[in-house]
């Protein structure tokens, strides 16, 4: 019998009686953060899921044990995919929930920036955008600029949900 087979045999024989304890909650000593979100999605509705990524950061750092005020967080969101249509005034009824959430985050100091090149591709003018939107020359130059200023880049990977939590639990 090889050493590997012996090891697996021992594990299989003793495993039913082993106790591994339980997980531990850890309070990582976070500091105020500078974060740059890159929103570039293939479907406008995916912005709703991406905004949960933002919520996860803001809520975690705003609650105990961290209790950072919104002013202590430097968060920027660069929008340059199909989700650009969500921040157009005439589309507000269709994307109301997302726009209201973004407006709330903007009131906390989050900056929402739209790629000027993408805006031109969609034939949008500055007057077409919600009032909390900043139009920047290019998403690529904006992303590079803020990363060079020490911002951590987060690019949400939003997948299509195929199973409920109950189905995979």
Topology (elements, then pairings):
Elements: H1 3-14, E1 34-39, H2 46-62, E2 74-79, H3 92-107, E3 111-115, H4 116-121, E4 133-136, H5 139-148, E5 152-154, H6 165-168
Characteristic key phrases:
169 residues; Hypothetical Protein Ychn, Chain: A; 5 strands
Individual helix count? 6
CATH superfamily descriptor: DsrEFH-like
Mean pLDDT over the residues: 90
What form results from the Cα inertia axes? globular
Q: What order do the helices and strands follow?
A: HEHEHEHEHEH
Q: Report the CATH C-level class.
A: Alpha Beta
Helix/strand/pairing class, anyone?
Answer: alpha/beta
How many structural domains in the coordinates?
1
How many individual β-strands?
5
Largest sheet: 5 strands, parallel
**Major β-sheet strand ordering:** 4-3-2-1-5
Helicity, as a percent range: 25-40%
Supply the CATH architecture.
3-Layer(aba) Sandwich
Beta-strand content bin: 5-15%
* CATH topology grouping: Hypothetical Protein Ychn, Chain: A
**Gyration radius, rounded:** 22 Å
Write a compact overview of the structure shown:
This protein is α/β, with parallel strands linked by helices. The protein has helices at 3-14, 46-62, 92-107, 116-121, 139-148, 165-168, and strands at 34-39, 74-79, 111-115, 133-136, 152-154. The chain has a single domain (32-158), classed as Hypothetical Protein Ychn, Chain: A (3-Layer(aba) Sandwich).
């Amino acid at each position: 019998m090889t050493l590997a087979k012996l090891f697996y045999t021992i594990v299989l024989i003793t495993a039913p009686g082993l106790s591994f304890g339980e997980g531990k909650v850890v309070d990582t000593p976070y500091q105020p953060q500078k974060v740059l979100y890159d929103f570039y999605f293939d479907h406008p509705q995916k912005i709703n899921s991406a905004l949960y990524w933002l919520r996860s950061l803001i809520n975690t750092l705003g609650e105990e044990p961290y209790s950072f005020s919104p002013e202590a967080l430097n968060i920027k969101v660069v929008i340059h995919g199909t989700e650009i249509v969500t921040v157009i005034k005439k589309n507000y009824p269709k994307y109301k929930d997302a726009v209201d959430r973004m407006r709330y985050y903007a009131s906390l100091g989050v900056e929402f920036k739209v790629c000027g090149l993408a805006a031109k591709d969609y034939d949008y003018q500055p007057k077409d955008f919600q009032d909390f939107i900043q139009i920047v020359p290019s998403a690529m130059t904006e992303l590079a600029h803020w990363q060079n200023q020490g911002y951590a880049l987060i690019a949400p990977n939003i997948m299509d949900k195929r199973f409920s939590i109950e189905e995979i639990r």
